[in-house]
Amino acid sequence: MPDIVDIAVSNDNFKTLVTAVKAANLVDVLKSEGPFTVFAPTDEAFAKLPPGTITTLVQNIPQLARILTYHVVSGKFMKADLEKINTITSVEGSPISIDCSDNFEIKNATVLISDIEADNGVIHVIDNVILMG
Known about the structure:
With 133 residues, this protein is α+β, with helices and mostly antiparallel strands.
């Protein structure tokens, strides 16, 4: 089974995410044993950010890494696991709110596709980049 990075690289909807992960030097981390739960923003999600945001982040690697690790949780959490809790702590260290009452939502994003299993965890595809705070 492919790992989280291999799945993202093979999917045309994650070009911006893959570029950002490479720029932040997080490829080796996300290829490690894990397991990890990744809330993966699509290219469309990144396109919703204000103009110039991605360029600014690529020039500020610590901030880029902080935002990307906010999308990662240590451990493998399928949708069924997340339905039982209200918040989860990201690898970055901040809590992420979860709401499965109507849709499957985390912070300001809706999960478009859940439970894409990888060798070292699971990916949930989201429609917005989630921001801390």
